[in-house]
Amino acid sequence: FAAAMDLLEYQGKQLFARHGLEVSDGRAVTTVEDAVAAANELGYPVVVKAQVLIGGRGKAGGVKLASTEEEAREHATNILGLDIRGHVVHELWIEKASDIADEYYASILLDRSAKKALLMFSTEGGVDIEEVAEKTPEKLVRHHIDPLVGISADEALQVATQGGVDEDVREGVAGILVKLYEVWTEEDATLTEINPLIVTPDRNVKALDAKVTLDDNALFRHEESKAFTVKGAVDPVEERAKALGLQYVALDGDIGIMGNGAGLAMSTLDVVAQAGGSPANFLDAAGGANAEVIKTGVETILSNPKVKAVLLNIFGGITRCDEVARGVLGAFAEIETDIPFVVRLDGTNDVEGRRILAEANIPNVHPAATMNEAAEKVVALAKERS
User: Fold this and answer.
1) Rounded Cα gap, residues 11 and 353, in angstroms
2) Residue 1: its pLDDT value, please?
3) What letters, b where the CB count within 10 A reaches 16 and e where it falls short, cover 97-109?
4) Strand (E) positions, 87-236?
5) Are 285 and 293 in contact (CB under 8 A)?
6) What distance in Å separates the CA atoms of residue 339 and residue 362, rounded to the nearest whole number?
7) Edge-to-edge strand order for the sheet containing 341-347?
8) How far is it, in rounded angstroms, from Cα 341 to Cα 271?
9) Where are the beta strands (DSSP E) in the chain?
């Protein structure tokens, strides 16, 4: 699971502005009154934009043009709290409206197969790029960037020319592409996207939108970016697990999973899915996990109310299975739960671990000898509670 940090539109624009990309003037607000005040300060017309980490805001009613204070108040009232495909709007971006002559698309992402950054550009902006790629692939320029060289102004100009940009704005577009790559590299981003990249009637080029994903593992190099937070974007259980030093990712199912080691945990997810179950999480207790770590992991899994059954799949190398068993008992001593647990212990001190669990005789703890047996058993127990 790659760690990623998605930014809201206005946060992405703040990042763009640091690197000299032109963006529209705007204000981030969280209340209707602040939205109206921002609109009055910027001057009408303004655009009231929902700030959520999901596309399709306009179609969902999350982007509205306001020409008066009354309209700004009405739109802010309607958009704050709006649910856009499961994302509740907590922030608005009030932006000075722009006149648009043309809309382009530009993005840079990591092409893992080529092991290079991939620049994509099209004069068909303002729509889903997937639609452009499918219906008019000849209008989408794909250009790999040598990581040892970067992208020069001449190279960017060639991309703009190949893409069919009007001659009088080619240099402006090329300049944006060079700066977009600068953001991608210097900010340790995995995605920088502008859709649309607009040309104004006076032939100026600027970013009207911003989509940025940062490598969460590189944030220690970027103090300014650590300040970017998105209310409601991170699962609260994930936040708690991270604070406790656990590798936890929330999923959509109802079977809690814990393994020691990322490979074993991933394999456990696959085996449970093959048995007809739906994992509720990925949790790697890591090699050498002791009783306290296991107890904390169990508590973390059970903090998800969707969980109907839990599978602990431990292969003891550095990790001792008797320590795992004590961790399970410690968790049950502090947490009252009737959630069934299937425990598969194998490896270092596995006999001792199974003995400890057997002597404890906890009604909702079920031993399993193999991964397949454990998966089938936990899926059946989860279905019984459905």
Assistant:
1) 50
2) 45
3) ebeeebbbbbbbb
4) 87-88, 92-96, 102-111, 116-122, 140-145, 189-199, 205-207, 211-215
5) yes
6) 11
7) 247-250, 281-284, 255-259, 309-316, 341-347, 365-368
8) 16
9) 4-6, 26-29, 46-50, 63-66, 83-84, 87-88, 92-96, 102-111, 116-122, 140-145, 189-199, 205-207, 211-215, 247-250, 255-259, 281-284, 309-316, 341-347, 365-368
How far, in Å, CA of 383 to CA of 386, rounded?
Answer: 5
Question: Which one has a higher pLDDT value, 46 or 137?
Answer: 46
Q: Name the one residue in this structure whose structure tokens are 């020319």.
A: 161
Helix axis angle for 9-18 and 170-186, nearest 10°, is 100
Q: Which two tokens stand for residue 298?
A: 């169990």
**pLDDT tens for residues 79-127?**
999 999 888 999 999 999 999 999 999 999 999 899 999 999 999 887 7
Q: Is the four-CA dihedral 44, 47, 50, 52 of positive or negative sign?
A: negative
Cα(373)–Cα(386) distance, integer angstroms: 20
Q: If we measure between CA atoms, which residue out of 226, 182, 185 comes closest to residue 5?
A: 226
**pTM attached to this predicted model:** 0.69
Residue type, 113: S
Residues with a catalytic annotation lie at 105, 193
Alpha-carbon dihedral sign for residues 26, 27, 29, 35: negative
> Which pair of tokens denotes residue 44?
């009408």
313 to 10, 247, 273: CA distances (angstroms): 43, 15, 15
Give the length of the chain.
Answer: 386
Alpha-carbon distance of 62 to 90, in angstroms, equals: 12
Q: 100 by DSSP, 3-state: which?
A: coil
Q: How many CA within 13 A on the CB side of residue 78?
A: 15
